[in-house]
Amino acid sequence: MSVYMVERELTGNSMAALTGRHATMITKLGGSDTWYLRSMFLPMTGRFFCLFEGPSAEAVQKVNDEAGLPYKSILPAAEMAYPA
């Protein structure tokens, strides 16, 4: 499995509005081999980043398409460990 970063531009959305749409996306993951890991929202810019683990970028794209969440890009990502 690989990690993928999904970048969205959601200008004009409140955190409350994003929470509902986000819950819809997570529900769509049931039974798939793609896992949602976490998100970061930058309200001042409307940019929203989500990390997923899955077999391919196409699998991550399918989950996002089924949830109806727009995205700007889906790219492979590498998580950096915090130095001990």
**In CATH terms, what is the fold-level topology?**
Alpha-Beta Plaits
Number of strands: 4
Radius of gyration: 13 Å
Number of domains: 1
Strand content: 25-35%
Mean pLDDT: 82
CATH architecture: 2-Layer Sandwich
Please write the CATH class name: Alpha Beta
Could you state the order of secondary-structure elements as H and E? EHEEHE
Number of discrete helical segments: 2
The portion of residues assigned to helices is 25-40%
Principal-axis shape? globular
Structural class assignment: alpha+beta
- What's the oligomerization state? single chain
Strand order in space, largest sheet? 2-3-1-4
Low-confidence stretches: none
Query: Termini separation (Å)?
Result: 25 Å
Q: What would CATH call the homologous superfamily?
A: ORF SCO4226, nickel-binding ferredoxin-like monomer
Structure description:
The protein has helices at residues 15-28, 57-67, and strands at residues 2-9, 35-42, 47-54, 73-77. By secondary structure, the chain is α+β, with helices and mostly antiparallel strands. It has one domain (2-77): ORF SCO4226, nickel-binding ferredoxin-like monomer (Alpha-Beta Plaits), CATH 3.30.70.3090. A four-stranded antiparallel β-sheet has the order 2-3-1-4. Strand 2 (35-42) and strand 3 form a beta hairpin. The longest helix is centred in the N-terminal third of the chain and has 14 residues, at 15-28. The radius of gyration is 13 Å and the shape is globular. It starts with a strand and ends in a 7-residue tail after the last strand.
What layout of secondary structure does this protein have?
Elements: E1 2-9, H1 15-28, E2 35-42, E3 47-54, H2 57-67, E4 73-77
Antiparallel strand pairs: 1-3, 1-4, 2-3
